[in-house]
Amino acid sequence: MKRSIVVIAAIAAALIGPALVAVPASAGNTTTTVWCPTGSSCATMLERMIHYSGANYSPGANNMVVDIPPPPCLWEPIGNATTGSKAIIKEFGTNPNNAGTQFEVNQSVQQADNFLKQNPPPAGEWYWLPVNDAAGQAGINECLKMPLYVFVPPGQPLPGIQLPPQTMAQLVFTQMGIPGAGQMMLNPTSGKTFTNLPTFVRVTLLSKNKNNKNKNNMYETAPNGQPYVTVTGSLAGTTVTVWAVASRLQVSASGGSGYTPDTSNCGYLGSREINDAQFVAKAGPGTPIDCGVTFQAPATWQITATMNWQACWAPVAGGGLPPANCRPVPGAQLNGLTWTRRVAVNEIQSVNNGNS
After folding, report:
1. Alpha-carbon gap, residue 330 to 320, rounded angstroms
2. Beta-strand relationship, 299-307 and 250-254
3. Please, what is the end-to-end C-alpha distance for the chain in angstroms?
4. By the 8 A CB rule, do 286 and 276 touch?
5. 3-state class of 215 per DSSP?
């Protein structure tokens, strides 16, 4: 049926072509590698195919991943049992005998016509099949063996989609909600201190209670205090879980002529001693602390705390702690978190007229 071939070719060229990025071949290699850039319609189609689970699943998070290889067959949703069926009927009419048998269009017309007569219509989604013309002739030939349209009930996989586990991990990572920077807490709490007295530093992550509808910023805590988040993705019998884990907090300062960082024992969120009122009260000049800074010169200083995140994946289901075989997610790029607070530092002598 020539009309179906034209439909596939035209739509593939219009929608799929611009979504793919061709990377020039290296010297001595005459091939070209094609990838889905994050946020493209190509990557969006792949994301729609995966079933996600986990408290940190965040639709539309769009974390950056460099180079996601697309499969040869890319299904595009056209609507539920009602809207998708109307689109097919509008294109081919209600008589399956007039639709032709190529790409099983006649069967899709009959199915769509039946759906429109049912009340209520069945649950599911109609898809049509653009073909990734960059997949090579072998891949294109396989896609052309499939129907032009397919109706997929909830939880059922799309036909012909075989994503490598590593590619699935990249796509799952793009849909992961990462906690944001919350508050920076200091002790002294006023933001005013004196030279040679330690300033304790601790931070919080923006998170949501499990009962809150917005769960995108929830995180778990490992026994050693390390924050982490996790999302699981499944498609056609393949399941992967992706973790993002936090690094230990780094603390620095700027604005004056000298300070000592007390960061060798920083926890993932900073000082654990900050809430020990007795210890803080006894922390005089030169007292080492677990996490913070000690200023040697008066000035208006800025304390900066930073935390980095790393992503890894494993071919397993569910959450929990990252396993020993957790592998880096290829091309994953996560921005670090930053907290800042200004601190007014005075000379100790300035409060007692120079008397010790």
Report:
1. 22
2. antiparallel
3. 97
4. no
5. coil
Comparing CA positions, the residue from 183, 355, 331 lying closest to residue 270 is: 183
| Beta bridge mates, 245 | 228, 310
> How many helices and strands (H and E) does the chain possess?
8, 21
Which residues on neighbouring strands pair with residue 305, listed in sequence order? 251, 339
What angle do the packed helices 165-174 and 41-49 form, to 10 degrees?
Answer: 100
Local confidence pLDDT in tens for the 356 residues of the chain: 332 333 333 333 333 333 333 332 223 322 333 456 665 656 666 777 788 888 888 887 778 887 776 666 677 889 999 999 999 999 999 999 998 898 999 999 999 999 999 999 999 999 888 776 666 677 778 778 889 999 989 877 777 666 788 988 998 998 898 899 999 999 998 889 999 999 999 999 987 544 445 544 578 999 999 999 999 998 877 899 999 999 999 999 998 888 988 888 899 999 999 989 889 988 888 888 999 999 999 999 999 999 999 999 999 998 789 998 999 999 898 889 999 999 999 987 644 444 44
Place of tokens 């996490």: 291
Q: How many residues can be counted in the chain?
A: 356
Structural contact between residues 294 and 260, judged by C-beta atoms closer than 8 angstroms: yes
Q: Report the amino acid identity of residue 150.
A: V
Token pair listed for 241: 């879980």
Q: How far apart are the C-alpha atoms of 205 and 339, rounded to whole Å?
A: 10
- For residue 311, give every residue at least 6 positions away whose Cβ sits within 8 Å of its Cβ, in sequence order, or none: 173, 176, 242, 243, 244, 328, 329, 332, 334
> What's the sign of the alpha-carbon dihedral 246, 62, 154, 146?
negative
Q: Report helix, strand or coil for 352.
A: coil
Q: Which of 304, 290, 291, 286 is nearest to 194 (CA)?
A: 286
